[in-house]
Amino acid sequence: MTGHLIVISGLPGVGKTSVAEIVAARTGSVHLSIDAVEESILACGLPRGRHVGVAAYEAVGTMADLNLRLGRKVIVDAVNDSEEARQTWRAAASSNESRIDFVHLVISDALEHERRVTHRDRGFAHVGEPTWADVQHRRASYAAWSDAVVDVDTLERTTDEVADVVVARLSVR
Question: Model-level pTM?
């Protein structure tokens, strides 16, 4: 029994979680979000920092692996701006020979991206919202993709339309 892992990636504010939720609902997939796990870890009183982010990736990677072993489709949403982060998903998929697809969401207009980042409130008490300067810093250090990746521009599409593109391009049912 093999599963299918879809990793929805991109900078903060491009719509990863919204798209992941829709794709998961439409396809009966398990949805795992790095930010939700990080929020839970921080709610336990651990200090913010790189270690908490790494722990969130590792925890979600383990949950993805367990669900893939059951032959499930798993949708993960995470920034995935480094090879180290992407290796988490490769390892989860390869441990049970599951299919893996990377989706990279972008917003081609920087002013619109900035507007979305500065006006969003996801309701997290501990993770917080990144500033536009934080997003720009991450953009500057975002690792080039070495994997095949489906790029989708979210600028002129609703989240439902982006989810349609993801489902169609990856033949997810």
Answer: 0.94
Going by C-beta distance under 8 Å and a sequence separation of 6 or more, which residues neighbour residue 126?
Answer: 38, 39, 42, 43, 48
- Give the CATH number for residue 36: 3.40.50.300
Residue 33 belongs to what H/E stretch? strand 30-33
Q: For residue 59, give its domain range.
A: 4-170
Q: Phi and psi at residue 114, in whole multiples of 5°?
A: -60, -40
Measure the CA–CA gap between 130 and 121, rounded to whole angstroms.
10
Q: Which residues contact 35 (CB under 8 A, 6 or more apart)?
A: 17, 56, 77, 122, 124, 127
Neighbours of 71 (CB within 10 A): 12
3-state secondary structure of 100: strand
- Considering its fold, how many domains does the chain have in total? 1
Low-confidence ranges of the chain (pLDDT < 50): none
pLDDT > 90 fraction of the chain, expressed in percent and rounded: 86
Beta bridge partners of 142: none
pLDDT digit string (tens) for 54-63? 999 999 999 9
Convert the pLDDT of each residue in 20-48 to its tens digit.
Answer: 999 999 999 999 999 999 999 999 998 88
